[in-house]
Structures are given as structure tokens and as C-alpha cells.
UniProtKB/TrEMBL annotation:
The lineage of its organism: Bacteria, Bacillati, Bacillota, Bacilli, Bacillales. GTP binds at residues 107-114, 189-193, 253-256. GO terms for molecular function: GTP binding; GTPase activity; signal recognition particle binding. It catalyses: GTP + H2O = GDP + phosphate + H(+). Belongs to the GTP-binding SRP family. FtsY subfamily. This is Signal recognition particle receptor FtsY. GO terms for biological process: SRP-dependent cotranslational protein targeting to membrane. Involved in targeting and insertion of nascent membrane proteins into the cytoplasmic membrane. Acts as a receptor for the complex formed by the signal recognition particle (SRP) and the ribosome-nascent chain (RNC).
Length: 301
């Protein structure tokens, strides 16, 4: 239900337009496919993905001898799920049986990183886990305080130092605290902006090294948070972070705020990194595990 509500805009713009197209055409011809391409590109499915999808659709339509546009819809949904599932990477989170599971969050300011940490902490706590938060964004004014607000809201302790301190030192403290308090999960915030990109990436590498030294096998996940409403721009950011931070999964926020939810598919296709969660609102319950079948079928239902 939450999924359906949160995707209302995309459903209208994407699936709604596909439905209109199907109603408009009597037969499946070249013109039909051209218009379909247009709809998919407008929904931010991504140019390469659209071309591949439409090529495969044409083949499948021929193979199954489909004449009625209404029958193409099922093929579209099947192919969209297939394209998503063809990408590599592990879908669920890599959670350790014996904690702490360390998850590092990266992404530029404003994408919803802090909110996502709060929401995810809430999920884990609801499942009976002990969660600690590391206030590793020591750069942005107010970031520590904002994380503390989320910590109080969901019932997670925040490990912090003062603004401007070394994030690697904060994370070091948090790792010690996680061990001594037997925490199951440690969620580490990081800065989204330093004076320049090279600085930001260097800082992330340093934080990662501290984690690697303290907990063998950690970080268990590096989650890149991206804002769905920024469309193709999100992809550019993702490419930069992918190299520097060794991203293992994407959290795509604000999917409720865009009609171009097809961005999920372009991200998957172009980066080969799974989308692990999607943000569907500002409240603590508004985070859903991303399930490609639920997503695609939910759109076209
Ligand atoms: P940060 O700078 O990356 O830590 O971003 P914040 O967590 O402060 O979030 C920036 C804004 O986006 C806040 O107003 C959040 O409430 C909002 N936000 C975060 N996630 C979502 C989401 O999934 N949907 C919507 N509609 N808003 C979100």
C-alpha cells in the first residue's frame, strides 16, 4: 500500500501513459513503438535501457505473434523486471549474525542521508536490534544536532564529537562504543560536501580505512543515498562515489516526489549496483525495501 501511494506520480506519468498509448493504437506497429520509447525516456528509464527494452519487445512481439497492443503490456512489465534483475550485486543487506554490522552512508548534502539513517535505525530497532549512530558529518552546520533529533525519535544512541572534528575519530569512537555496548548495528553518517570533491573522497577513504582496521570485513555495506527528483544528475553523482567509496547499494529517496521513477532502472542498468531501499516520504516509516517486481507490477496494476 505504501509503495503504491508513494509511487502515485510515477504511476500516472509512466504506467498511465503506457495505458493511454495502448488504448490509442489498434495494432502494434512501428509508430506504436516510437511513441512507447518517448514515454519511457520521459519517465527517466534511461536512453540505453529504453533502446534495449524496445528491441527486446519487438522480438518478443514477433515471436509470440502479438497483434493487440493490450497484450504488449505484460511483455513490457516482464522485460522491465528482467532488465532490473540482470544487474549484479546482492539485493538484501549484508547483516552479520554477530555484530556489529557496520553500514556507511555516503552522498551529497540534501539528498536525505540523515533522514534515511533515522528511518533505517527505526526499522532495525523495530526488529529488536540495538542500533548506534555515528555523527560523522562534522562539516555541515547542524548535521550533528539533526542526527541527534532522529536518535531521540527512534531510540538510538548517537556517538559524536564537536563540529569540525575529524570524522575518522568520531567513527573510531563509535566502533569502540558499538563493541563495548554490544550493538548489533552501527550506522555511520558522513559529510556530503567539503571544500572540493577530492577532499570529500579522501575523507571517505580515511573513514573507510578506520572501519576496515577496527572490524575485519567491515564496512559491511556502503550505501549511496541519491535523490530521485534530481533525475539523471543522480547518475552523475553515483558514478563519482562508486569509484571512491566502493558503494554496495543505493538508497533512492524522494521517489514520492517524482513522476520519473524510471530512474530506478537507469541507475541499476548504468551502475550495476542494486537499489536496496527507496524513500517514499519524510516520516520514519517511509522507507521500503526495494523489490523490482513489486515496483514494476505496482506501477502497472
Ligand atoms: P541530508 O543533507 O542528505 O542529510 O538530507 P536530509 O536527511 O536533511 O533531508 C533533506 C530533506 O529531504 C528533508 O527535508 C527531508 O525530510 C527530505 N526527505 C528525505 N527523504 C525523503 C523522502 O523519501 N521523501 C520526501 N518527500 N522527502 C524526503
Amino acid at each position: 500500500e505504501k509503495f503504491k501511494e508513494g509511487l502515485a506520480k510515477t504511476r500516472q506519468n509512466f504506467a498511465g501513459k503506457v495505458n493511454d498509448l495502448i488504448a490509442k493504437y489498434r495494432k502494434v506497429d512501428e509508430e506504436f513503438f516510437e511513441e512507447l520509447e518517448e514515454v519511457l525516456i520521459q519517465a527517466d528509464v534511461g536512453f540505453d535501457t529504453v533502446l534495449e527494452l524496445v528491441d527486446e519487445l519487438k522480438m518478443e512481439v514477433k515471436r509470440r505473434n502479438i497483434k493487440d497492443p493490450a497484450d504488449v503490456k505484460d511483455v513490457i512489465t516482464e522485460k522491465l523486471v528482467d532488465i532490473y534483475n540482470a544487474g549484479g550485486g546482492q539485493n538484501g543487506l549484508n547483516i552479520q549474525e554477530k555484530g556489529p554490522t557496520v553500514i556507511l552512508f555516503v552522498g551529497v548534502n540534501g539528498v536525505g542521508k540523515t533522514t534515511t539513517i533515522g528511518k533505517l535505525a527505526h526499522r532495525f530497532i523495530r526488529d529488536g536490534k540495538k542500533v548506534l549512530l555515528a555523527a560523522g558529518d562534522t562539516f555541515r552546520a547542524g548535521a550533528i544536532e539533526q542526527l541527534e533529533v532522529w536518535g531521540r525519535r527512534v531510540g538510538a544512541e548517537v556517538i559524536k564529537q564537536k563540529e569540525g572534528s575529524d570524522p575518522a575519530a568520531v567513527v573510531y569512537d563509535a566502533l569502540q562504543a558499538a563493541r563495548s555496548r554490544n550493538a548489533d548495528i552501527l550506522l555511520c553518517d558522513t559529510a556530503g560536501r567539503l571544500q572540493n570533491k577530492a577532499n570529500l573522497m579522501k575523507e571517505l577513504e580515511k573513514v573507510k580505512r578506520v572501519i576496515e582496521r577496527q572490524v575485519p570485513g567491515a564496512p559491511h555495506e556502503v550505501l549511496l543515498v541519491l535523490d530521485a527528483t534530481t533525475g539523471q544528475n543522480a547518475l552523475v553523482q553515483a558514478k563519482q562515489f562508486k569509484e571512491a567509496a566502493g558503494v554496495t547499494g543505493i538508497v533512492l529517496t524522494k521517489l514520492d516526489g517524482t513522476a520519473k521513477g524510471g530512474i530506478v532502472l537507469s541507475i541499476r542498468k548504468e551502475l550495476n549496483i542494486p537499489v536496496k531501499f527507496v524513500g517514499l516520504g519524510e516520516k520514519m516509516e517511509d522507507l521500503e525495501v526495494f523489490d523490482p517486481e513489486k515496483f514494476v507490477y505496482g506501477l502497472f496494476e
